[in-house]
Amino acid sequence: MRIVIAEDDALLREGLALLLRAEQLDVVAATDSPAAFLSAVDTHRPDVAIVDVRMPPTHTDEGIVAAVEARRRQPGLAVLVLSAYVEQAFATDLLAGGADRLGYLLKERVGRVEEFLGALHRVAGGGTAIDPEVVGQLLARSRPDSTLSRLSPRERDVLALMAEGLGNTAIAERLFVTEGAVHKHIRSIFAKLDLAPDDRADRRVTAVLRYLDDSRRG
C-alpha cells in the first residue's frame, strides 16, 4: 500500500510516517501543504492519501479542497481525512461525491493504533470509515421530524454503525445480536428510507449519506 501524508503539524506528520512504516506500509511522501500534497499525488500515484482538514494558509478547509482535487486527478484514490474536531459539514461535503474509499477520523483516533489501522485498511479496500464520535454527534443533532424518525432505536444503532463503515458481522458483534437480526434491521432501514433495490446504487452507502445529510440539515 503506497501512502501520501498531508499534515502541517511536524510531530504528527512524522509520527504517522513512523507508525505506518513500522507496519510495513510504503509512505512515499509526507507533505506539509496542499500544494506539496497534490504534487506528491501526481508524482507517486499513491493508493491512499491521509489528509488533515485544516492546512495552511488559512487553516480552514484547505485539506478537504485538496482531497477532492486529488480524487479528481486520480479517480479511485482512497482518502482518509483527519480532524482535531467534529466538523460535520466537512464530513458530508467530502462524502457528497460518494462514500466509497473515504474515511473521516478525529486525530485522537491515531493514538488507538489498531482502530486507526483498521480504518485505514477499510478505506484502502474500498469501504468507508467515519469516526464513531462524528457519527454520535450527527445522530444527536438529527431533527425529530426527519426521515430518520421512522427508524426504531435499534435501527438507528445499526445505521450509525453502518456509517462507521462496519460490516454486518462486526455490527452483530458490537450490538450482541445475531447476523440474521442485523440483516433484518438493515432490510427494515432500507424500506423505511424508501431505498428500493437498484443495481446502480449501493443502498448501504445511500442510507449512510441520507443519515449524514439529514443530520447536517438538523
From TrEMBL:
MF GO annotations: DNA binding
Domain (Response regulatory) ranges: 2-122
The UniProt record lists the keyword Magnesium: no
Modified positions (4-aspartylphosphate) in chain numbering: D52
Lineage: superkingdom: Bacteria
Biological process according to GO: phosphorelay signal transduction system; regulation of DNA-templated transcription
CDD domains: LuxR_C_like, REC_NarL-like
PROSITE patterns, per the entry: HTH_LUXR_2 (PS50043), RESPONSE_REGULATORY (PS50110)
Keyword set includes Transcription: yes
Keywords noted in UniProt: DNA-binding, Phosphoprotein, Transcription, Transcription regulation
Domain HTH luxR-type: 144-215
SUPFAM superfamilies found in the cross-reference section: C-terminal effector domain of the bipartite response regulators, CheY-like
Protein name stated in the entry: DNA-binding response regulator
Lineage, broadest ranks: Bacteria, Bacillati, Actinomycetota, Actinomycetes, Micromonosporales
